[in-house]
Every structure is written in C-alpha cells, then in structure tokens.
C-alpha cells in the first residue's frame, strides 16, 4: 500500500477543466500524470486517474479532498492500483471465433459429463 501513488477521482463536474483540477491537486504536491474522462454520454460527471509523485502526497490528497465540493459536486477519491499491461504473442492461427466455438463445445461436453455422472448415481441408488 505504501507504493500506491495513483488516485481515482470520481464525481468531477462535466465543466471542470483539467487545469482547474490540477490547481487543486497540486496544493498537496507534484502531479506526475493526469487523465480525465467522461463517464458516459448520459451523465454529467467525469472521473480522473491521477499519479502523484509519492504515496504520501497521494494519501494527503485523498484525506483532504474526499468530500471536497467543486461546483456542487462532492469529490470521491480512492487509491487506484494500475495493472501493468504487457504485450502478448498471439499465435498466427488464433481466431476469437474458434476460441468461442471451443468454449461452447467444452461447455456441452462438461454438461454431458455431469449428466452421465448423475445417471450413474441414480443407477447406484436403485
């Protein structure tokens, strides 16, 4: 937990600019990166993923800004764990459809095996 430097911020008003949010966040220390996205087309709020320079800065931002009102919206801040994405080698003959077909076939086989096992149990009980 001590190396968490990323913070998820939710309930950011739609009309808040990145610069405005940065000004608030940088009161606690340097911000390494920030990404702000709109949740979806229907809602009037955005969210942000912020990386602070250190865990302590991130912790202080969360402690002091959770519930902070900005344009009638109370901000919610949480530690956020970034999962490192790594490239994967995909076999040349890979096809999502063939994988899906294999899963369907495997599920059918599993159900058949369960049915056979149940039939055996029923026979033994008689």
From TrEMBL:
Residues 91-126 are annotated as: Disordered. InterPro entries: Nucleotide-bd_a/b_plait_sf (IPR012677), RBD_domain_sf (IPR035979), RRM_dom (IPR000504). Residues 5-82 form the RRM domain. The keyword RNA-binding applies. GO terms for molecular function: mRNA binding. Residues 107-126 have a biased composition (Low complexity). The keyword Nuclease does not apply. PROSITE patterns: RRM (PS50102). GO terms for cellular component: mRNA cleavage and polyadenylation specificity factor complex. Keywords: RNA-binding. It comes from the Eukaryota. This is RNA-binding protein. It comes from Anaeramoeba ignava (Anaerobic marine amoeba).
């Amino acid at each position: 937990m001590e190396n968490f430097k990323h913070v998820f911020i939710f309930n950011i008003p739609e009309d808040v600019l990145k610069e405005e949010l940065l000004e608030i966040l940088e009161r606690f220390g340097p911000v390494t990166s920030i990404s702000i996205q709109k949740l979806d087309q229907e809602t009037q709020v955005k969210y942000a993923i912020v990386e602070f320079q250190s865990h302590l800065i991130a912790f202080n931002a969360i402690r002091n800004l959770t519930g902070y009102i900005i344009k009638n919206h109370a901000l919610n801040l949480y530690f956020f764990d970034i999962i490192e994405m790594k490239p994967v080698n995909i076999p040349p003959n890979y096809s999502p459809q063939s994988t899906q077909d294999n899963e369907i076939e495997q599920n059918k086989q599993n159900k058949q095996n369960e049915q056979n096992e149940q039939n055996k149990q029923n026979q033994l009980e008689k």
